[in-house]
Amino acid sequence: MIDAPRQDWKAYEQRTREFDIEWLRSLSPADRFALYCDIFNLIRQGRDPKADEVRLEELRWQQKLAARQRAVEAFQKLDAWRERTAQRHSH
């Protein structure tokens, strides 16, 4: 079995630490707050099972309606066929 390459995260952190510190220092309070809001919203969206549940329920409802509509159309065609057949046999 082939293993995925492993990352040396400690070495990566050592190489990028100074850059990260400088980048964070360069942010204004407004930039920091915007970054915080972005991260917060990302986590919040990922943890909102209600939104997925509502979308899934709506999808199921639409599928149920579509199946019912197909059944109604099929029964209407069957009724029309039976009427035509009954009229032919009654003459």
Characterization of the model:
The protein is mainly α and 91 residues long. The protein has a domain of 62 residues. It contains 3 helices and no strands. It is elongated, with a radius of gyration of 31 Å. It starts with 8 loop residues before the first helix and ends with a helix. The model has no long low-confidence stretch (mean pLDDT 89).
Topology record:
Layout (H helix, E strand, L loop, with lengths): L8 H18 L2 H18 L2 H42 L1
Descriptive key words:
91 residues; elongated; mainly alpha; 86% helix
Entry summary:
By secondary structure, the protein is mainly α. Helix content is 86%, strand content 0%. It has a domain at 29-90.
Radius of gyration: 31 Å
Q: What composes the largest sheet?
A: none
* Approximate strand percentage: under 5%
Global shape: elongated
- From the N-terminal CA to the C-terminal CA, the straight-line distance is 77 Å
Structural class: mainly alpha
Q: Count of DSSP helices?
A: 3
The overall pLDDT, averaged over residues, is 89
Taking pLDDT < 50 over at least 5 consecutive residues as the criterion, the unreliable ranges are none
The percentage helix is over 70%
- Let me know the number of strands: 0
What string, H for helix and E for strand, traces the elements in order?
Answer: HHH
